Amino acid sequence: QADAPATNAVAGDKISRVGVIGAGQMGAGIAEVCARAHVDVLVFEQTRELAAAGRARILRSLDRGVSSGKITEREREQAAWRLRFTSDLGDFADRQLVVEAVLEDEKVKTAIFAELDQIVTDPKAVLASNTSSIPIMKLGMATKHSERVVGMHFFNPVPVLPLVELVTTLMTSTEVSVRAEAFARDVLGKQVVRSADRSGFVVNALLVPYLLSAIRMVESGFATVEDIDKAIVLGLAHPMGPLALSDLVGLDTIKAIADSMYEEFKEPLYSPPPLLLRMVEAGRVGKKTGHGFYQYP
Ligand code: CAA
Ligand code: NAD
Known about the structure:
2 domains, alpha/beta, binds nicotinamide-adenine-dinucleotide, Rossmann fold, binds acetoacetyl-coenzyme A, eight-stranded mixed sheet, N-(1-d-carboxylethyl)-l-norvaline Dehydrogenase, domain 2
């Protein structure tokens, strides 16, 4: 199998300088947990306005960490100091680990990996993607050093959910996969599972058909949005139902994940239902735009 052998050894220097590309929900969360773990974090956003919005998002989450007793005021302040923003990817030259977290679009991601490969020249640097579904090999092959490329798949909300899926390809070096795993586990305190480089990896291969089935239920009038969610929360003790969860993830992202899983496996269960397509076309993509299956203030 493509995956490199698991090992507890930490290869090479400890990672203390991280770059995060994108400060949307996931990029902001990844930058936040790195800063909270005493790591120097540089975040790329396309414009100053988006960078300001990303910083505000992180500060709000740090405030939530304080109000829920997870971190102290001092820890919040120190984490905020460790975060810097840039709109020039060229500033990433000294990064030891870069986590890409831009929208789920293969063309955009491959262009970023090709550019990053030229900028980050340290052969030990780890170039990671937080993609939900795009095979990591496609991103690795956009670079000249595919041995440095891995998937590090975090879960939303990143400060709360303890999992990282580590995805290595046929080309990823053992040293790089060991460094990435050690960083997620020992520095960020996450738990790591390994997945083969298959679209959707472990979690989304199971989650996305379930979310799409719930959307098909709404589409066919089988049950209401509220009753489907209530049934799952009360009947299966999930923290939220599938339609609230779809809104949280983002319907645009779910459509993109479904498209890439369908492209890989050609299974009808991964094919995005028309209701999902229409909602994305209408811009009703969930919590981040204030309207999806539910409305958000
Ligand atoms: N920093 C630190 N801790 C925080 C925090 C922050 N910014 N925000 C919240 N928390 C903590 C709270 O203190 C609380 O901790 P305790 O349980 O110890 O009290 C816990 O997180 C829950 O927070 P809240 O009580 O404020 O919120 P909630 O109970 O309504 O839960 C939720 C919200 C965490 C989102 C929960 O509903 C949940 O876990 N939902 C499921 C989320 C899920 O399945 N995510 C995966 C999506 S799939 C994915 O990510 C992969 C992909 O590729 C699409
Ligand atoms: P989001 O919509 O919140 O943020 C998207 C980010 O991409 C923003 O920073 C935006 O500025 C940037 N972006 C958009 N177009 C761009 C372009 N042309 N060039 C460069 N940057 C661009 O999305 P998100 O939920 O943070 O998802 C980001 C990644 O994380 C995706 O690959 C997604 O599949 C993955 N992911 C999402 C979740 C989730 O629950 N939402 C969970 C795990 C992984």
